């Protein structure tokens, strides 16, 4: 069977523990046209394998005679047996028993944001892996390995997810010994322990009396060798004891400067994942949810305008909606497009929206071709590839119609549609194209 051969080859190209964790559980389901369909345990597993191993699997398939096959990973939904309908009392939610006088929510963690829960977190392509991994850690199913590391820019949801884990753990297992703090707070506690000669108590707190440790902003430990050593010892003890650890930072472990190599290795011992800026669909859902919380009535047009002009940091959305509510109250409560434009320009600091022409300029610089070439009728590969990528990016990052994008390149809408399909196909099949577009996406978001 081809899947068995593919697995044998993959086993020789990756570490044994990685193969056992991510490849061995996959099961062949069927070959349907050009789709080589594999079955995985759950959506989190599917997302991670697709992101990290699909290109390697497709390469092995090609070497075994399936050159055009594309890997599709799905989750098997177990069929439920038909049973007689019996009316019975709904079972109570499963929660951990606790001793008398123990607070249900471990109230010493008053700094947990009440709305930072899983239910309030908007899941999209940019964060589905991080969200699923945090749910996995919260229920302790062991899927993400000994340590989860999440990195992202500011305001994209790292703190929301760590708070959500704490909320879920306290709600379902109130006796869990959970410690949630920033890396700076950890460093301050350590210094206090040294000054007061209570380091034994400090070590005991984190190494022995801890079931789950959540540490935010690990990048703040840059250059602090003693604190890194102490936290590394804590991680080593917890990981060996089968405890749960979540770390967050603004960069992946390999990109953190001034970090000890042993500490860096320990942080990378489990799943390392990132949160990207939300796409326009996710931003629209975030705006709708937060507008509801602010009791703002926004129609589809206003939501679409806000979503297309406010990008990156989700806190910008909150800032805009707070300003919108304040201005609306001062003007009698009526919200129209002029008011929304004013808020976007003055509060969020975004003026003219992104256009296909702006993206055309950026792509011409990146590929070292002129805008005139991109707008020409040339069919040379060195021109057509950048042109197709520019059209794809224009469709992704602007609200322009296919016809409007076509005008920027002297093409009709059918050519734009064809270019988008070409680039979308390359994204799935070619990891180098995917990496190149990730870089361009970041540059476009900065325009």
SSE diagram, text form:
Elements: H1 2-11, H2 16-23, E1 27-32, E2 35-40, H3 43-52, H4 54-63, E3 70-75, H5 128-139, E4 148-152, H6 158-172, E5 178-182, H7 183-195, H8 199-207, E6 212-216, H9 225-240, E7 244-249, H10 261-267, E8 271-275, H11 280-293, H12 300-309, H13 314-330, H14 337-348, H15 356-366, H16 371-374, H17 381-397, H18 402-408, H19 413-429, H20 431-445
Parallel strand pairs: 2-3, 4-7, 4-8, 5-6, 6-7
Antiparallel strand pairs: 1-2
Helix pairs in contact: 1-4, 3-5, 5-6, 7-8, 9-10, 11-12, 11-13, 12-14, 13-14, 15-17, 17-19, 18-19, 19-20
Question: What keywords describe this structure?
Answer:
Rossmann fold, alpha/beta, 447 residues, 8 strands, three-stranded mixed beta sheet, 4 domains, single chain, GMP Synthetase, Chain A, domain 3
**Net shape:** globular
The CATH architecture assignment of the largest domain turns out to be 3-Layer(aba) Sandwich
Structural class: alpha/beta
Task: Name the CATH superfamily classification of the largest domain.
Answer: P-loop containing nucleotide triphosphate hydrolases
How many alpha or pi helices? 20
**Biggest sheet overview:** 5 strands, parallel
- Mean residue pLDDT: 82
Sheet with most strands: strand arrangement? 5-6-7-4-8
**What would CATH call the class of the largest domain?**
Alpha Beta
What is the total number of structural domains? Answer: 4
Number of strands: 8
């Amino acid at each position: 069977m081809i899947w068995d051969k593919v697995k044998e080859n993959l086993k020789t190209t990756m570490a044994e523990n990685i193969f056992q964790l991510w490849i061995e559980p996959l099961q062949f389901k069927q070959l349907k046209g050009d789709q080589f369909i594999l079955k995985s345990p759950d959506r989190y597993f599917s997302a991670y394998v697709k992101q990290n191993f699909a290109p390697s699997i497709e390469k092995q398939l090609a070497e075994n005679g399936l050159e055009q096959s594309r890997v599709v990973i799905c989750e098997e939904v177990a069929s439920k047996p038909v049973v007689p309908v019996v009316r019975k009392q709904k079972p109570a939610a499963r929660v951990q028993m606790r001793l008398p006088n123990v607070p249900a929510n471990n109230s010493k963690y008053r700094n947990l944001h009440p709305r930072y829960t899983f239910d309030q977190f908007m899941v999209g392509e940019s964060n589905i892996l991080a969200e699923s991994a945090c749910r996995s850690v919260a229920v302790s199913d062991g899927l993400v390995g000994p340590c989860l590391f999440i990195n992202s820019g500011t305001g994209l949801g790292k703190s929301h997810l760590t708070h959500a884990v704490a909320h879920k753990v306290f709600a379902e297992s109130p006796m869990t010994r959970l410690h949630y703090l920033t890396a700076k707070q950890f460093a301050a506690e350590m210094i206090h322990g040294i000054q007061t000669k209570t380091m034994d108590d400090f070590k005991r707190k984190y190494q022995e009396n801890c079931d789950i440790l959540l540490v935010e902003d690990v990048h703040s430990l840059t250059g602090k060798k003693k604190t890194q050593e102490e936290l590394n010892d804590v991680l080593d003890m917890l990981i060996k004891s089968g405890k749960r650890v979540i770390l967050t930072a603004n960069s992946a472990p390999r990109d953190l400067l001034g970090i000890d190599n042993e500490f860096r290795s320990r942080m990378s011992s489990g799943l390392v994942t990132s949160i990207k800026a939300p796409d326009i669909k996710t931003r629209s859902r975030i705006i709708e949810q937060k507008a509801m919380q602010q009791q703002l009535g926004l129609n589809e047009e206003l939501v679409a305008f806000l979503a297309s002009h406010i990008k990156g940091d989700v806190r910008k959305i909150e800032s805009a909606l707070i300003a919108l509510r304040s201005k609306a109250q001062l003007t009698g409560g009526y919200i129209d497009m002029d008011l929304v434009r004013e808020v976007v320009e003055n509060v969020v600091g975004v003026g003219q929206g992104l256009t296909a022409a702006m993206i055309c300029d950026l792509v011409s610089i990146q590929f070292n071709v002129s805008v005139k070439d991109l707008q020409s009728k040339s069919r040379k590969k060195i021109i057509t590839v950048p042109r197709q990528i520019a059209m794809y990016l224009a469709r992704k990052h602007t609200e322009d119609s296919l016809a409007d994008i076509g005008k920027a390149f002297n093409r009709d809408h059918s050519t734009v549609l064809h270019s988008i399909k070409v680039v979308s196909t390359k994204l799935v099949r070619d990891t180098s194209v995917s990496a190149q577009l990730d870089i361009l996406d970041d540059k476009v978001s900065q325009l």
